[in-house]
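Hi team,

As requested, here is the filled-out complex form for the guanosine-5'-monophosphate run. I kept the field names the same as last time so the parser does not choke. Let me know if anything looks off before we queue the next batch.

— J.
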Amino acid sequence: MEKGKGKLIVFSAPSGSGKTTIVHHLLEQKNLNLDFSISATSREKRGKEINGKDYYFISLEAFRKHIDQDDFVEWEEVYSNNFYGTLKSEVERIWSEGKHAIFDIDVIGGLRIKEKFPEKTLAVFVKTPTIKIMEKRLRSRQTDSEEKIRERLAKAEKELSYAKEFDIILVNDDLETAKKEAEELVLKFTS
Ligand code: 5GP
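And here is what came back:
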C-alpha cells in the first residue's frame, strides 16, 4: 500500500465546525485530484443514503470478518455495536485511479491514519473560533434535539483536546476564507 504518489488528506472536527462543507468544496476542485474515501459501517442505512456512495453498508458479521482479516487501515466502534472503518481496498482503489484520498472522519480515526502513514498524510483539524459559535451553528441547523446538541457539545470539548496532534488547525471563522485556505493547504501538500 505504500507505493505510488497517492496521499491521504484527513479532515476531522467536532460537528458544527463546517468540516463537511469544506470537504465537499475540495472535492469540487477538480485540479486537486481528490476522491472521497468511503468508509465501511455496520450501522443501518439512514434516509437518502446510498450504499457505495455515503458508506459501504455491511453486516456486523462481515465487519468482524474484515477485522480478523486485517482489511482495515483503521476501524472503531463509534457507538455500541456500530462499527466504522476505512478499508485498505478503498484507499488502494483511489490511489490506483491516480488520485489522493480525502477523509471526513472522526478525530480518533483521523489520528490513526496519520499514525499509519505519517509522511503521506495531511491531517487537518477544523474548528470554529469559539465553542459558543459552534453551539450557535448547531442550533441554526435545526436538525438535532436539545439532548443531541448537548451530547455533541460534550463530545466536541473532548475532541478539541486532540487538536494539537494534527498537522494544522484550520479556524473556520469565515467559510469562504476557510475554503480557500483548505484549497491552498491541499495543493501545497500534494504538489
Ligand atoms: P454517522 O453515523 O453520523 O454517519 O457517523 C458517526 C461517526 O462515525 C462520525 O463521527 C463519523 O465521523 C465517524 N466515522 C465515519 N466513518 C468513519 C471511519 O471510517 N472511521 C472512523 N474511525 N470513524 C468514522
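Two things worth flagging: The two ends are 20 Å apart (CA to CA). The chain has seven helices and nine strands.

Thanks,
J.
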